[in-house]
Amino acid sequence: MKSYYVGKGAASYNRSWKTFSERTLAATSSTIDLTQLQELASTREVPLRILDVACGTGLLLQQFAILLPTAELYGLDASQDMLAQSHLLLGNNPRVHLSQVTLTGTTAGSLPYDLASFDLITFTNSLHYMDNPVTVLRALAALLTAQGQLVLEDYARRIFPFPWRLFEWFIKQVDPQHVQAYTLAEAQKLCQEAGLKIITTKTMTINLLWRGWVISAHA
Q1: Dist. CA 102–CA 104, nearest whole Å
Q2: What are the φ and ψ backbone dihedral angles of 162, each rounded to 5 degrees?
Q3: CATH topology of domain 125-219
Q4: What are phi and psi of 133, to 5 degrees?
Q5: Average pLDDT over every residue of 119-147
Q6: SS3 for 2?
Q7: In what order do the strands lie in the sheet with 49-53?
Q8: CATH architecture of 1-102
Q9: Which of 52, 128, 123 is nearest to 89 (CA)?
Q10: Could you read off the pLDDT of 178-219 as tens digits, one per residue?
Q11: CA separation (Å) from 164 to 56, 65, 170, 196?
C-alpha cells in the first residue's frame, strides 16, 4: 500500500491533500439528494443507513454525522492506518461502524453487509484503483435499497492536448496501486454496464492538473 495511506502518511493525509479533498468531497456532497434523505429519515422508524466506500480519514462520514445525526454510518477502507484517523476524527460515535476491507473485483461480492440495506452509498476518489470496476459497481448497486442513491466521484482522465499518458505514467510511479482513470463518459458507461440508472452528473476543476467528475445513480 502506498506510503501516504499508512503510518505518517496517513496521519498527515488531511493536511497534504487538503485542497483536493475539500473540492472533491464538496462536489460529492452537492450531488447527494439530502432533502430526500432527510424526509425519509423523518417518516420511518428505522434509521437511515449510509455506507462510505474507501472512507479514508472519515471526512465524508463526519459530514453525514452532522447533517443526518440519526443515521447509521458505515465506512470501509483497505488501510487500517486511515481507519485509525477516522476513529480520531469521529470519536466514539456509536452510530459509526468502520471495517477494514480491501475492495477488488474478487472481494466485492463478499462485502460484510446485507443486500438492499443502504439508502446512500458514496464511493470517492477510488474507482481508479479497481481492477474490475463493473463488478465492484454491480456489487455496490446490490446493497442499495429500492430508492437508494449511489454517488460516485473520482479524478478524470484528461484528453488531448493534455499529455495524459505521461501524467498517468508518473501517477503509477508514485502510486503503484493506480489502475486506470476514466473520463465522465467512460465512467457513465461503466455504471450502465453495472445496471445503474444515472440520475445526474457533473464535472469539476480541482486545480491546474486535476479535473474530476461526479455521478449520482440508482440501482
Answers
A1: 6
A2: -65, 135
A3: Rossmann fold (3.40.50)
A4: -60, -35
A5: 97
A6: coil
A7: 96-100, 72-77, 49-53, 118-124, 144-155, 211-218, 197-205
A8: 3-Layer(aba) Sandwich (3.40)
A9: 52
A10: 999 999 999 999 999 999 999 999 999 999 999 999 999 999
A11: 26, 37, 10, 28
Residue boundaries of the structural domains of the chain: 1-102, 125-219
Span 22-51, pLDDT tens digits: 999 999 999 999 999 999 988 889 999 999
What is the DSSP-derived secondary structure letter of residue 29? H
User: Is 50 within 8 Å of 74 (Cβ atoms)?
Assistant: yes
Cell 484517523, located at residue: 85
- Identical fold for domains 1-102 and 125-219, yes or no, is yes
Phi-psi region of 53 (alpha: psi -120 to 50; beta: other; left: phi over 0): beta
Look up the pTM and report it: 0.96
